[in-house]
């Protein structure tokens, strides 16, 4: 146990340890009622040149699973894999160890994707009830939070009282290009993929 703690606090290993610690602190404060459960359920506003980050959010099922649930799983997996690096013949917390954190994070993202996939079923009912209360999404206007082009998947917000509803969106016509903050019309939904297809608003 002492060796594990020492490894967790050595050099670059402090990074996954701090991330996991902050997540644990969040859940502790939620449990004792200090902060609201929805406090960190933000809407993601990413710049147009940050489409890679936007793609990661979609890849991790965000919009279907609460952000803090995904982050909690990712931080735990990342920490566990990072601690397993001490079995390799490299200096704990050293430069090589730091470089290895990059592929470790990528592997953690893949594992998180696998773990969160079945969780979508658990949150689907709440998500559908939330949409029903808003009168459905098809036929409404959505504000895009990223550029969408060449048939790529993105996300958009349906404005409402309180926090906005985040949905996965894709262009109905692949040749259409949508800019961040552009307003579009929700044309239809693919229930199997849980993707909403959008079209341009006619001038």
UniProtKB/TrEMBL annotation:
Keywords, comma-separated and alphabetical: Membrane, Transmembrane, Transmembrane helix
Superkingdom of the source species: Bacteria
Transmembrane segments: 12-35, 56-82, 94-115
Protein name in the entry: DUF1449 domain-containing protein
Organism in which the protein naturally occurs: Clostridium taeniosporum
């Amino acid at each position: 146990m002492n060796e594990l703690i020492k490894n967790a606090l050595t050099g670059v290993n402090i990074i996954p340890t701090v991330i996991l610690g902050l997540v644990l602190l969040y859940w502790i404060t939620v449990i004792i009622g200090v902060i609201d459960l929805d406090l960190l359920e933000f809407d993601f506003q990413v710049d147009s040149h940050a489409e890679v980050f936007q793609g990661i959010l979609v890849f991790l099922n965000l919009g279907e699973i609460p952000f803090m649930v995904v982050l909690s799983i990712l931080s735990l997996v990342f920490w566990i894999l990072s601690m397993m690096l001490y079995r390799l013949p490299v200096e704990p917390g050293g430069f090589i160890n730091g470089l290895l954190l990059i592929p470790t994070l990528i592997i953690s993202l893949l594992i998180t994707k696998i773990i969160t996939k079945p969780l979508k079923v658990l949150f689907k009912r709440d998500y559908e009830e939330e949409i029903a209360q808003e009168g459905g999404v098809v036929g409404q206007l959505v504000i895009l939070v990223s550029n969408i082009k060449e048939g790529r998947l993105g996300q958009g917000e349906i404005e409402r009282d309180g926090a906005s509803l985040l949905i996965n969106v894709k262009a109905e016509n692949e040749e259409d290009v949508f800019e961040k903050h552009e307003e579009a019309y929700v044309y239809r939904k693919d229930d199997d993929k849980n993707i909403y297809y959008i079209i341009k608003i006619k001038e």
